[in-house]
Amino acid sequence: MSWGEDSTGCFPPGGIQMEPKTHGFLANFEKWLSYLFIFIMTVAVLFQFFSRLLGYPLAWGEEVARYAYVWLAFIGTSYVVLTREHIQINFFVHKLPQKAQKVLQILEYILMILSVIWILPSAFLHSIEQWKNLSPAMELPTFFLYISFPIGMCLVVVRLIQLLSSDVRSIKQH
């Protein structure tokens, strides 16, 4: 039985357990970044609310919250992939033998990795093109908003490779 597997030989819905050498900050990188973005969103919305209440609305509050929300979505995607809590349609897959389930999961990871890698070059180019466009309130390049997608997807690829290698190792051990 490989690390992270339960007694049936499958990985639990809660995801894999990180190998001892990756415990700590690296294993929870996306989780802590997500917490940070939730905190930023909360503070920005609260500042916006109280400043409006006092009659001095902030021009940048909503924009900061929006940027944090977009970053949260794409960084959170990587964390959800790592914990295997992303949306899956697996009704028929669970009816297959364990080894067939693992093989299908490996194929799924390979297809996901190839899809993301196929999209990444155009996503980076589009992000770079946004450097000249400024956000209305903060007057920052919208690059900082658009770059969240390729960065988040790079993290997704890293996490998919981790899951792929883990599943391949577990098949080889059986």
Could you describe the 3D structure shown?
With 174 residues, this protein is mostly helical. The protein is built from 5 helices and no strands. The chain has one domain (20-173). The N and C termini lie close together (8 Å). Helix 1 (29-53) runs antiparallel to helix 2. The model is unreliable at 1-12 and 17-21 (pLDDT under 50). It is 63% helix and 0% strand.
The largest sheet is:
none
Number of domains: 1
Tally of strands: 0
Give the helix proportion (percent range).
55-70%
Rounded mean pLDDT is 86
Task: Tell me the β content.
Answer: under 5%
Stretches where pLDDT is under 50 for at least 5 consecutive residues are 1-12, 17-21
Principal-axes shape call: elongated
Outline:
This protein is mainly alpha-helical and 174 residues long. Helix content is 63%, strand content 0%. Helix 1 runs antiparallel to helix 2 and helix 2 packs parallel to helix 5.
